[in-house]
Task: structure prediction
Amino acid sequence: MSITLSEKDNGYIEGFAGFKKNAPGSDLDWLQSIREQAIAKFSELGFPTIQDEDWRFTNVAPIARSSFNILENGHDKVSASDLTQFQFEHTEVTELVFINGHYSKELSKDGTLPEGVIVKNLADAIESEQKIVKDNLAKYADFKDEAFTALNTAFMEDGGFVYIPKGIVVETPIHLLYISTDEDTPSITNPRNLIIAEDNSQANVIEHYTSMTDNIYLSNVVTEIVVGENSTIGHYMIELESKKAFNISTLRVQQARSSNIRSHSVLLGGSLVRNNVHPVLAGEGCDSLINGLYMSSHRQHMDNYMKVEHASPHCDSRQLYNGILDGRSRGVFHGRIIVHEDAQKTDAKQTNRNLLLSDTAQIDTKPQLEIYADDVKCTHGATIGQIDENALFYLRSRGISKDNARDIILHAFTNETLESMSVDSVKNYCYKLVTNWFDQRKENQEA
Amino acid sequence: MLEIKNLHASVEGQEILKGLNLIINAGEVHSIMGPNGSGKSTLAQVLAGRDSYEVTEGEIIFEGKNLLELAPEERACEGIFMAFQYPVEIPGVANTHLLREALNSVRKYRGEEPLKHIEFVKFANEKMKIMNMGDNLLKRAVNEGFSGGEKKKNEIFQMQILEPKLAILDETDSGLDIDALKVVSEGVNALRSPERGFLVITHYQRLLDYIVPDFVHVLVDGKIVKTGGKELALELEDKGYGWIEEEKTAANS
Result:
């Protein structure tokens, strides 16, 4: 039986009643209780509006107005050969594939993982790794104040579960690949990822959201990463949704002492995209690198909402987000840095650079520093501009053609955020996506 | 090699060059001096093809071609090189990347095969020794975070890589200390040859102790008002530009 969610006629609450009966782990009281609390919060909060300060620049009315189906399964619509376009070359990976939000064992593949490392889908992990899941799931991502997180938490079914034991280094990347298939009516998925890295461990996890067609759907993603002491986690978010899709994703990272997170977002697809990144530097001496690249065209809307929370002394955070906006697209960068009272010797830096390629593209960039400690270093900077004519002329005066010079400058701009990716195969994949974007743009201009 | 006839150029509607004439033959080094605002840099920018400068009258013939019809990159490929007064910083583009792209663009224009990576590195390394530059300047982003001296050295280094027919130095000496000035001058002198012309634009005579010109022209209010040998530069250093401007006023009245 398919479940339909809509704001009309209490559709979300009614849908939930139907959903919870057959949801994974429906026999677990603790889990059902979280879901119950979340749906209660969601119905209380409702979808945010532009009156909410955090949503001032992004109107989610198109989502609120829609009704979405929760799909049963779509494995039969995708074959292994369909996946190759979304895979990384020359690299051994552990890959979990989700079709319309549901795990596909047939399409997924096991990589070689060190002993004790667990990579499996969350629906299974709820049963088999119940203690770890129970101790961490929904403990960090705030479903009490954030509507989309509440919605995800109420309707979470499946996603990636990654557990790295103490002292283990996972060399090969872990790929969580989400694919939406062609459906007649708009659909919703609520991917829920839980990544636990115990002390002194290391791994790279890639979330990847793609589609096979141009249909309308909502991916409402929540990912929680718990980084143990002295551990390093690389997180990649590659958003390649269909042209008509909505993608709302929330990354919540909890960092213990001396831990290190390297977060990379690459946003290219979707009609309405919101990328929430929220690390809490909870232990002393943490390091956060938060990089992103957003490239929009036509009428795409891409909103990046950063909330970097310094909660302990001697932590460093570095944010670098670059945006390229074309057509009538609109970008948002909202960069909050919160330095708590105890977080002395914080060193936080935020940079947001934007290139507008058309007269009709628009960007809103807003730094927001909330500092409650007195011995900190916080800097922020934002730029908005066109391609630098001086740089263009300089290159041309050296014999480089105008087109080539433009390409060099644009690629340099995108590379600034991509070059810090430590997994080469993923970096190369992203380089390719960016090159395709530029090629597509040229084709459109010539047409 | 280069013939400038009755050149008038304006920027934002204001006429800066007001009928400039100049002939540079292969093998010659010409220096242009003049007070601030006389049009020295405008001349350099017009030659390089900056489109914010509008040529309203006159012509520029370079090696038999109408230079004003060529795009900046075509001029570069034809053999014109301008060392910028204020070299531009280009974040994210490695110096080597720029140089290789530039060199191979020029080679392609001439119908030559592009240099392979290894050949290029060898070629660049030879030139780097002349300029006394560290490896790291090659790997770093173009001019980003370079000191004033490093930027100017980098300009001359690029010039050595591209081996132009006509080299234009737009106040390359401004702001350099004596050590950097010597390195830059040595770099320029290493390129002097019977096939190559130089146009050295400067505000200060000091540079001309190191790059000794064949001709010195004085540019005042958009026109060349006096031409002489290298001793003219010394005279200017000594007496300033006032006497020339007075001479000009006297001649006009």
Notes: Chain A has a mean pLDDT of 95. Chain A touches chain B at residues 388, 390-391, 393-402, 404-405, 408-409, 411-413, 415-416 (CB under 8 Å). Residues 389-447 of chain A form one domain.
